[in-house]
Amino acid sequence: MLTRRSVLLASAAVASVPMLARLGVRPAAAQTPANVLVFAKQIDDIISLDPHEAFEYTASEIAGNVYQKLVTTPNSDPASLQGELAEKWEVSSDNKTFTFTLRQGPKFASGKPVTAEDVAFSLSRAVILNKSPAFIINQFGFTRDNVAERIRATDPRTVVLRTAEPTAASFLLYCLSAAVGSVVEKATVMSHVQGDDLGNAWLKQNSAGSGPYAVRQWKASESVMLDANPNADHQPKVKRIIMRHIADPSAQLLGLQRGDVDIARNLVADQVKQVEKDPKFSVQYARKASLMYLSLNQKHPILSKPEVRQAIKLALDYDAIQKNIVPTTYAVHQAFLPAGLPGALTEHPFSKNTAEAKALLAKAGHADGFEVALDYFSGAPTSDIAQAIQANLAEIGIRLQMLPGEQRAVITKTRARQHDIAMVRWGSDYFDPHSNAEAFSINLDNSENAKNRTIAWRASWEIPELSQKTLAALKETDSEKRSAMYVDIQKEHQQVSPFVIMLQEIEVAVSRAAVKGFDMGPMNDRHSYTNITKA
Amino acid sequence: MSDTATSPAAAPPPGGPSGQPAGGRNRPSALRLRFQAVSGTLASIPITLFGLVLVTFFIGRVVPIDPVLAIVGDRAPQDVVEAARLQLGLDQPLYVQFWRYLGQIVTGDLGRSVMTSNPVTDDIIRFFPATFELATLALIIAMLLGIPLGVLAATRQGSWVDQAVRLFCLAGHSLPVFVLGLISLLLFYAHWGVLPGPGRQSIFYEGMVDTRTGILTLDALLAGDWGAFQDALLHLAQPAGVLAMFSLAYIARMTRAFMLNELKSEYVTTARAKGLSRGTIVWGHAFRNTAVPLVTVLAMTYAGLLEGAVLTETIFSWPGLGQYLTVSLLNADMNAVLGATLVVGLIYVVLNLLSDLLYRLLDPRVK
């Protein structure tokens, strides 16, 4: 009783440090245990850990470490496809039937081997559940009704997929390498079914995978704990991963400096700069498949003039914006396929040229400039970037009316096509050029009731020809030719589109110097923990 | 606390409303009046909550964020978006939507949060204990320090002690909580290393204590894990201390004002003339009379703490109601916002009611 009261009093008197010491109450050891790796990360985006439902950054990353897919891409050469669960695959001559042969060896955390039945069940499950990421698989013509006959296990090691249309193998394989292609253990999942949820309620917070780790516990907005899967074919070096939700970047940095955190994931540009030169830490960068761009609404009579669009592209000082505002967290990028994705175009045709931009405006009949509204997210660093854009455009006479807002409010506005200019971010949904190509360069129906409301539709940009070109690239079965077609499309797109693509996001991870081997990829589900070591 | 609260309310007026018993003319009518006052307050609860739901609901619907966006995401095909819109009933007129929502909450169903995809009730049950734990400890600290400080300042009005307390209160009240939080982290965690960093527990204890109440300190005690209890308490120290600092300033300032008022009264002069000791005068007489207004101050401070402190929760990575409410709001997750607002509203109403009841216990004149 007495001790309890004194402990209570002790915490009441937080200011009196010596008192705490006298009581012998000590905070936990400053170094993390040797077989546990601690991430500090904003993890409140996790809604579900079910790989056939999760579509958020953190949950995709976890899925990538807990589950295996038929195929994957190594981060050392992201364009090349490798079998993960599949040993080999064959494509029929009509490009509609894909036959996968499974490797022998991969085992679920339960100890049971991964069978073709599990693979067929998992892919069908994604289609039947029809949650947010399901469209990645559904675009091959799978539906709740036909999936039983189109995705089949023909023997314990063979899975056959039949697509509705002739399909480029690379397109299908890249899509299957997304987190939604994760293979779950049928028996375990089915033993937790509630109603017709296919085990969704259970798999939201648990796991049944064959990846190097298994989910031990998830506390929303608090922590995720993963333990090594004892039966995995690639044993991870660190036995336990703990991801702690530390919302504030300064607190993440403090944790890193104290040694309570091994890798901090959300440091901001200033803090990265601060630790970059410190030998106690190592900084790691990975180009992320996420772009920041301006969408110029083509409903606006002035913005729809080609000269005006071009003038805006030439007015911005991309390099200065990148260097001064986001030196470590963004890179200049000007095409719709981000660096790291197959078919990416990394040329920068635009740089600040005020004279030419002014001349173009004059040619369009706006020598005195005009006024137009800019919608953007009011947080950092977008608000600083917006101000730089305002200053750049003012130099050629375009007066921006600044409309800062919440992220979702800005998106809502662009989806309703009510913006003039909007600064928005776009992350690729899956590791195939089509993800972004469809968004930025397909708009077959520009009416208000269109079914497919792509980014191009949201800018009210009517492009019957470019859309067809983009669809042709999708159908090209020769992967080299296909990549080349995307490069061509981007070169045209860069010049004619109403999108001013400015920056590509860079993901930064700062670790203690002794921590090595965190493998980061262009998509979140490619961040691998398997080879992390702590000296 | 709930025992003292319910007993006057539950006590039936002797003899019922119509029959006046013969003996003791004053007593029964006083009780009856008290009962009426309490039942009057109780009756006002639904009206207050209705108003709250009404205002929150309509504010939520005029926010320029499409709620469907939070459910199906930015990438869903148009037919999925439309289906979600229909499912939410967003195609209906506002009053129909409101009527539906009311019908739902009357049956105790707060709906499902689109962001966490859990029933809102489950979310609140998960997030509220963290806030409750933090707020309660913060209030205890603020009370234990704030009241003595206030009394001390009042009894030495104008002296350096008084000036110091006033300066302290001014600083505590005007320093932004996030500055205080970061300074605290820098000193106690990063520099001296005497207190643990953000979060509710150390990695070592992660997953070792079963969740029963959600109040980590209590769960650790129930599990008999002394180490986990100490760890949880130490993690509480900084956020609770920072929150307490803010409340403490207010409590001390109000206590000082109330005490000054009392110490100027004639009964204090009389007591002094009769030769009562200083301690008896200050604590036995003057302080007892400040109890009534002080209860209101404490109740409202507590309510303010219980609605969750977004900034403190963010800095110390405390998964509480404040963060939940803010994130829900930014995502136009209206079920979650309405649910959490209702809970906050309920807290205010209940604490108001409790302080009303406490008045009646503390001050025999309130009838």
UniProtKB/TrEMBL annotation, chain A:
Family: Belongs to the bacterial solute-binding protein 5 family.
Pfam families (UniProt xref): SBP_bac_5
Domain of life: Bacteria
Residue stretches making up the Solute-binding protein family domain: 81-442
UniProt cross-references to Gene3D superfamilies, sorted A to Z: Dipeptide-binding Protein, Domain 1, Dipeptide-binding Protein, Domain 3, Periplasmic binding protein-like II
Protein's name in the database: ABC transporter substrate-binding protein
Location(s) in or outside the cell: Periplasm
UniProt cross-references to InterPro entries, sorted A to Z: Peptide/Ni-bd (IPR030678), SBP_5 (IPR039424), SBP_5_dom (IPR000914), TAT_signal (IPR006311)
Stretch forming the signal peptide: 1-30
Main subcellular localisation: periplasm
Keywords in alphabetical order: Signal
Residues that span the membrane, as ranges: none
SUPFAM superfamilies, alphabetized: Periplasmic binding protein-like II
